[in-house]
Amino acid sequence: MGNDLLLLEFEKYQKRFESPLAYKILKDLKHKIEFIEVRPESIKQCAKYIPHEEIVDIVHAATCLQTSAILISNDQHFNKLNESEVIEVWTISKAINTLVKTNK
Question: Distance between CA 10 and CA 13 in Å, rounded?
Fold first, then answer.
């Protein structure tokens, strides 16, 4: 699940790396992501915990709040959301370790 801003971020990275693999990943994501329209109340709730200049990350967090999804990021400004139990946040390492254990 994701939002339009997430797709824009992926497009930015695809252009930066300009490789066939980056293009394939972006293409696959466009077909597989279920896009969520983020409600204003979810944005307001998440904005209490993230600096306002990080609006894209606020919207990502709000998407997770609405869908009960785990946000995977190493960005420190998500820590307050996790500590306050508004949403669950995993580091990239935790996500990889958890998924590897699950798939054994």
Answer: 5
